[in-house]
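FORM 7B: Structural annotation worksheet

SECTION A. Query
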Amino acid sequence: MPNNTLIYPPQGGGGGIQSINGDTTSAQVIAAGTGISVSTASGTTTISSSGSSGANVELSNLSGVAVNTDLVPASTGSSNIGSATLPWGSGYFATGVGTGPLPPTTGSGNYLWLIPSSGNGAPAIQGYTNSNSYCGIQFTAGGGFTISDGFGTAGQPGSIQGNTAGIVYINGYAFQVYNSYTRCFGQFQIWPIGQTISVSQGTNGCIGNGTDALASGTKTISTAAVTSTSQILVTPTSAPLGQLYEYSAGRVPGTSFTIKSTNSADTCSFTWWIVEIH
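SECTION B. Predicted structure
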């Protein structure tokens, strides 16, 4: 065998030099960050491998990695990111995190997406089924949210909005809950039969308990619930001697109102209910 010197590239952590002298072979492996010196009549030359050996199989020596392509499994649903016992920490995504095509793309299957910035610039949770039935939670810059069909579009069937007010949309009708009142768009019904409206009684309330009684045909009721626009309904709870009515001149908004009888000798008991109009 002729005399030869072979220089080979990194393999398994480093390059090297192999010397063949007749039938005798010797080799020197150059590890990462090391080298080998070759002396000749004209001087000494050092041959060294690069300072990095590249990624190992376990990917445990990565530093400053910049991935420039998609990371995909060998087949659908065959690989996970992290595990139940070794989960990853925080994740940062520019477009969103989902289980299928990014909405509003349609397709078969059931999908859910977390989207950092949706149509109004705020985050959203959106999903759809293989029947293309959309739903979502749309957050707003003011701290509110909308839960609805149509990816958070207000006014869509089944939507709920929340911030300083809440709105439920069902088949074109709405039920609104504000800080100080609730509004129903459409007919308000109580169901099933036998159910009714329950109004709390007590100090500064808007309904009586049936034990207030006239004295010489008059009675002043103290309550902060009465306003300048209140409608006051009066019902006798014992036989009256005359007709009962609210004496408008005796109303003090936020303080009290007065009930009178057309008979000054009336001492009947009664109940009352304050109703507001808008």
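SECTION C. Observations
DSSP finds no helices and 20 strands in the chain. Residues 212-275 form one domain.

SECTION D. Sign-off
Analyst initials: ____
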